[in-house]
Fold each of these.
Amino acid sequence: MKPTIDMLKQTSIFRFCFCAASGLLALWLALISAGQAAALPNILILVSDDQGWRDIGYRHPAIATPNLDRLASGGIRLEHQYVFPTCSPTRCALMSGRNPARFGILGPIAGKSTQRMPADMVNLARMLKSRGYFTAISGKWHLSLQIENGPRNYGFDSTYGYLHGQIDPWTHEYKAGDRTWHRNDVFTDDKGHATDRIAAEAIRLIQEKRSQPLFLYVAFSVPHTPLAEESRWRDPYAARFPEETRRLVAASLTHLDDAVGKIVAAVDSAGLRENTLILFTSDNGGPRQSGASDEYEGRYKSQVGPLSDNGPLRGWKGQTYEGGVLVPACVNWPSRLKPRTENAVISVLDWLPTLAALTGFEIKEEMRLEGANLWPLLSQGHPVGARTLYWKTGEQSAVRIGDWKLVQSRSGAAELFHLSEDPYEKNDLAAKQPQKLSELKAALEKEAAR
């Protein structure tokens, strides 16, 4: 039967209605998506490298860090933010939400190592990218050293900085001239001090016009050695510290602080401040001292002496004592978080699940996350609950459960501390508390077995 004129009219009307409805549905979904994107906060994570517990203005007035002090006083100052004893493990924990020991990352990835954080799993950048974020890193990566395994393989849309654990501040090279400074997986020879270059890239990204929310990870190179600072940063410390190495650390931190101030000012100028969460943390406790070295063609052989101030905590970078794993940290979001000092025990492992909850990302069991969602604590003061924290290096392992902490050396020596009564780990209770010692040793073995 041939179609009649009426039948053709009805078909045309149906097609028109169908297309119109489809268009309206697409528009509605687009508006919902745009509304959700607009509601999502921008996320700015700032990380210093090897900053000691006391090497910040609000704990040590001789060191000028007014911008970091302002972030801490205007936000939540985190007095018990635990990280890992060295840089690669902490960065792995931040990115993955899992203990770095699960991947065999027990210390810095160095030299020509091909070790890397697994790329085939959900990580912070990939998670936020799936929620519609533009994801960017400026600064230190240190979770893989080869350019082909750089941050773009882990969910970052834009990458700039260096792959290794340390660099010459001016040449941007690693130790014996290895190239490591890059932009989007291509080595580059940009000029200028690393602190300034890292900050300039962060500011450029903030100033770019985009419809997406921004996740920006800014990982500074200081106060990690080798250090080189201009006289404008060094001169104020000429009479404050007798050792050149301490003056350089302080100068590098004031330089970093100035860069942080410029980055936050860029957020303000772009009109993003009210909807931007800023997290600041060091990657590990400060190192005790630096020694003479022929690396970097001998340019920094004179930098011999004490570096960090972790006092009154015990221990240094690379150790599982409190001085190696407790760091200066704060989180700031004026429109959502009221200023205060927070003494709850938290871990760098907590930030991925916290940001997942904040951005509506569904955590699945197979991700095997080991952190806690901190948002109820940060926004409303609700307690996180009982925590078990675990650390492992080549020389030590440690576990903290409640106020009790066990430090187990590879030599076999075990030390037991009650941190609420002995926060500086001076009183070893291993001989006096055999039952508690046995309990924590069992917990340590359980964590190691995972």
Amino acid sequence: MLDDFFLRALTAGIGVALVAGPLGCFIVWRRLAYFGDTLSHAALLGIALALLLQLDVTLGVFAVSALVAMALVVLQRRVKVSGDALLGLLSHSSLAIGLVVLAFMSWVRVDLMGFLFGDILAVSTRDIAIIWLGGAAVLGMLAAIWRPLFAATVSAELAHAEDMKPERANLIFMLLMAATIAIAMKIVGVLLITAMLIIPAATARRFSSGPEQMALLAAGIGVAAVVAGLFGSLQWDTPSGPSIVVAAFVFFLAAISPLAGSLGRRASVATDGRG
């Protein structure tokens, strides 16, 4: 019989995986892995400010991640610096500022390792409610903007020509990313969130013949990684968040093996969002 805390961890992890899979597909298609890293690093600054102002940590992470995403949009228009340089600037600056703010807060005891690498076994019923309700809202919004967002991923010019308002879809996508990072923080931590967004989607890409199929498969692979990682953590007494990411990576390695490669080649259309 599994303990209640383990069942809560499974429920929370599955909720995060169902959201991260479809969003991760757009990260893979758009080659935005570094953008995901930037928002996850900014999450630490959100944690620090939330503790300083005595606000809800999830709300603080979402607010700061959203502000960083908006700052990126503004800076790209006003500063003549390459996109990857801006991402690096925002990523490392927000992470460093967050660490400095936490260091000054000597009156607050902070489980820094829990924030960095997650503590899924400590999730509460309230956390589960936030994950599932917030995740449902994120997936609902993603479904609403799926067509213009995918069109902009394939060809921004085509999306403009068909009056799909790709800029609005891109902005909403950034906010959905910030929301996902906020609700996933307790599961795998701010440093491993991007891995859960990218690895299942990259694995699903090997076996998918269409974007919708890839999104569903990525969600399923994420769920399998959560289950395998948590049971592995229970069996070998390893950290739960990193164990989930390791399980996802093992699935990816299995997907690129010669045997899986023969199955992957049966997909009739390469799913890269550009073909």
Amino acid sequence: MMTLWRVSVRIFALLATLTLAQAQAPEPREALVIGNADYSFGPLRNPLNDAEAMAKALDQAGFDVTVETDANHASMEKAIQAFGAKLKAKGGVGLFYFSGHGAQISGENYLLPARDQIADFDDIKTRSLTATEIVDAMATAHNDLNIVILDACRNNPIDPNGAHGLSRIDSNASLFVSYATSPGAVALDGSGHNSPYTKYLAQSISVPNLTIEDTFKRTLKGVYVDTHGEQTPWISSTFFGDFVFHPTGAAPETSPPDANPKPQGDEIATLRPPTPSAAPAAIELGGVYRVAGTNPSGSEYHGMVALRQQDDQFNLTWWIGKDVFHGTGHFAGKMLVVNWGDKDPVIYTFGDDGALDGEWADGSAKETLEPVATVAAAEVAPPQGRYKVEGTSGDGSSYTGTVTITEQGNAYQLSWKVGDSNYRGKGTLDGNLLTVEWGSATPVIYALAEDGSLTGLWDAGHGEETLTPDE
């Protein structure tokens, strides 16, 4: 029989903390937590423990929590309808958490009920709760913020050779979505008392005064280290507001939760996550950056980066000396998470000066992207004609000259005259970023501004140059 229960604080010592958190929480907070483990086709060991851990952490953070365990389809549908009605009546912040089996079919995410007979894809489609239903039930409340947390990316035993993990849910300014692992990947149920994801998420939520981004940043790092890089949580959000899970008014703790593995646990225990600054509702990051960083070995590096933005998706190209690296990134609230090959993802926070302060997920390396020039946010006329040149070489000496830019099909021909020297190059324009190969080991990368000027870097970031239309 289904167990439906209201979570209350069971330990007297936590009453003071709970009262303080609820008193200082500036908005109503409602949470629905579902943990399903009793599957005939593939029982799981941790979802009931996960639901209990999350309910306790959210209760302490001032949420009014409803918990369903081993819920069948009818109970899940009833719970989500009641949850949506409460959000509509109260407003504030809504949070939905699910731990159990999940599956994606044709791009839709299905959260599988417990105890119901699920034998094939048709059963999944007709007897499961969809992510769309959850998001719609929360969105119709028109409340301030909705958080969807899915620890449901385990492999589906019904079709082990089919699609793995879950598909991405498109977020918006009032929706924050977090997965236990990247879309299309498989999360671990865990050999301990909780799944790796829920273990670190519950710990992070319980830390006083952490912003939502720092909460999930700590979770990402903890899971990444604990699973030795096998699992990387994913966040999808363009929410740039301020939300703190466990406000007390005091300064936040600086040390993230401990990780059990050694020596990685020692590394993560010494990390000091930066305090995120406020970011505008629509932030534009596309442009040219200088990069300075520290490798895991401790050695330092410098270079330049071209960052192209399309909505909330990003493409980055690094030139570090003669080496070239490529990465793709996405917004995670007030963070930018960038994956580049098989290496650790880099998590960037936004500095007050426009810089991007990055740290590898395992805490072993850091880098800062310093903005040199931003591209025009809208489409502008392509570069063409004669320009004045002002630049600085890597040795600090300045130079002036002219350059002529000629559009030839999809390419651009550049002819410089600087003093007695002449140079030629061929460039490509991509999202108001002009990359020009000119015979050197690294190209010139320019950001095209709204006024038609181009500012860029060359010599792997050691040189800088500005082109101004010569009218």
